[in-house]
């Protein structure tokens, strides 16, 4: 049996940490504005590459935050820890490593092989 309170606390901590990260990194992912007269081509490329990396990091963090919100909703609905594919319980060890997991290890492995 999964202890939902343990995972609720873990998910709330992760949500708070990600929210803070998203707030502080939003500026780095913003549009790059360069003074074209003073910045060389390589500097512009570096700035655009850094912006692109920041935007991708921001996107991944936003997706993680959405996954956390979905997991919190599953806790509220008393569905947390149930595999979406087979309906069996996801092992507590798997949930400790990834509390947003929606598939048991067997179904996740099968899905990876099929994809």
Overview of the molecule:
There is one protein chain. This protein is an all-alpha fold. The protein folds into 2 domains: 1-80; 82-115, no CATH class. Helices cover 64% and strands 0% of the residues. It has helices at 4-25, 41-76, 92-97, 105-114. The longest helix is centred in the middle third of the chain and has 36 residues, at 41-76. The radius of gyration is 19 Å and the shape is elongated.
Give the helices and strands, then pairings.
Elements: H1 4-25, H2 41-76, H3 92-97, H4 105-114
- The structural domain count equals 2
How much helical structure, as a percent, in the residues? 55-70%
The share of residues in extended strands comes to under 5%
Instruction: Please describe the biggest sheet, giving its number of strands, its sense, and whether it closes into a barrel.
Output: none
């Amino acid at each position: 049996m999964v202890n939902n309170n343990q995972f609720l606390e873990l998910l709330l901590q992760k949500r708070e940490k990600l929210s803070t990260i998203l707030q502080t990194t939003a500026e780095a992912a913003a549009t790059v504005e360069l003074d074209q007269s003073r910045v060389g081509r390589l500097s512009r490329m570096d700035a655009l590459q850094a912006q692109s990396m920041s935007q991708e990091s921001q996107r991944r963090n936003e997706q993680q935050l959405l996954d956390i919100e979905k997991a919190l909703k599953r806790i509220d609905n008393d569905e947390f820890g149930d595999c979406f594919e087979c309906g069996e319980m996801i092992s507590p060890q798997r949930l400790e490593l990834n509390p947003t997991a929606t598939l048991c290890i067997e179904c996740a492995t099968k899905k990876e092989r099929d994809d």
